[in-house]
Amino acid sequence: MNRPADAVPGDVPAAVLRLRDEYRRRADRALLLFRLSGTALILLGAAMPLFAIAEYPYKAAAVSVAGVAMSLSASLHAFFRWDRQWQLLRGAQLDLEDAHLEWSLATADPGTAGPGRDARLAEADRSLFERYRAIRGAETEKFFTLVEFPGRPAEKVGPPE
User: Where are its TM segments located (predicted)?
Assistant: First the structure.
């Protein structure tokens, strides 16, 4: 069965909710990693002077391990930018929730049966589908602007100077 090019899939509201839930899961994971890496940096940074001045067996190894852990935590955070991912994903999640709520309001009482009702429902579905695509596309584009490759200068984003 061929669908016209401008036809909207029938499961758009369900797809919106699935994507919203996926963004929520990813945002929660980014928040957790952001908090863990920050906490590790704070705790290890505060403890490093104590590790360095105290006398105990395997002192050099302990100080080295703490330094490597700090470096690893800071490097992973700088590479993955969990704080920005969290912000970006949470924003996309909220945008999808807004779009779904607007669709719900538009379809809650579409009026009496007939061609006008069907047209209003179709327009609400089409509007939801377009917002879904726009939000997903914007999130993808913004996500890849966050990626910085080690050893390669960051690309400038924004108007030229």
Answer: 32-54, 60-80
